[in-house]
């Protein structure tokens, strides 16, 4: 029986990575040696001490049952003390911390907890696609805030029309930013908190890359702004920080009303995080600081490899201060998709076309630094070899 997709699925933005995905599969099927700089997923393994905690905890029948959906109190306390240690912020672990099955899950459910049909989410563009799709699933409308290089990829909040603000309920932010790798100064968060207060918005700040800063840069938390808890929730994740993307453990921190509502949605959707994973996540948060520093060094080195190679080619882009992404302008004469197709066809390199993250990503592509150094060097070699006809199109 053919099933007619419901309107909410038909309303999803077009999946613009499809062309590149298909071509990548074709090249691999042909036996080509494809270097995948597309996915933002750490190649380094989860640190051993975290795996050991999981392995031990998995043997204990007490961990085999349904978890408490709001998370083990011990895990919430570790999340709270991690935030305190890192940012010097006091939170109530019972009400201002909510464990999540990955931050994607929390971000994905948030609009169901906050929006009425017809309400507006203010969404940066380009962005992580979940903000838009989850807003649409909740019957909300997405109002795009362009992120422009000329404004350091910060949204221009003051330019939002009053009629839009009247219906707006959520303002999404994501710093350090995927895909642009931009960072936000604390002053921008101060401005955003004041703006949210004035217009009755909830800020959802996605801090998935909070720990990935280079050359000594450490990203601020929006919760460091005075009174931020009144209007903001920040989403933290162990995924990128501790090389734990597959484990599904993260948390939201901040406004207690919002977390209560989100918890209510979740109680009807999931049954919590496997307790052995909760205990492993707790160990990561309690004892993983050294691992973070080690990861940063690895990505810093890879970033320098890419930045210096592109500089040698006269292909300038802003070296990322944070995240494991390079956001690079496409040469004149190409669209983002054409550039990505050309990289695949000529060099067997997968890059992500910027327009897949929203219309304002057109004119850029994203390289992810999550492949071993040797593969990155191989990719650079191929780019250097193809570079001449690349710019002569
Ligand atoms: C990877 C990523 C996430 C999702 O992380 P999980 O905690 O693994 O769900 C969220 N936001 C951004 C911007 C990301 O890049």
CATH architectural category of the largest domain: 3-Layer(aba) Sandwich
- Strand tally is 12
Ions, cofactors and other bound molecules: pyridoxal-5'-phosphate
Distance between the termini: 48 Å
Largest sheet: 7 strands, mixed
- Helix count from the secondary structure assignment: 14
**Structural domains: how many:** 2
Helix content: 40-55%
The H/E string reads: HHEHHEHEHEHEHEEHEHHHEHEEEH
Description:
It is a single chain. The protein is α/β, with parallel strands linked by helices and 393 residues long. The chain folds into two domains: 138 residues, Aspartate Aminotransferase, domain 1 (Alpha-Beta Complex), CATH 3.90.1150.10; 240 residues, Type I PLP-dependent aspartate aminotransferase-like (Major domain) (Aspartate Aminotransferase, domain 2, 3-Layer(aba) Sandwich). Helix content is 42%, strand content 14%. It contains 14 helices and twelve strands. A seven-stranded mixed sheet has the order 2-8-7-6-5-3-4, with helices on both faces. β3, α6 and β4 form a beta-alpha-beta unit. α4 packs parallel to α11, α5 packs parallel to α6 and α12 packs parallel to α14. It starts with 6 loop residues before the first helix and ends with a helix. Pyridoxal-5'-phosphate binds next to α5 and α9.
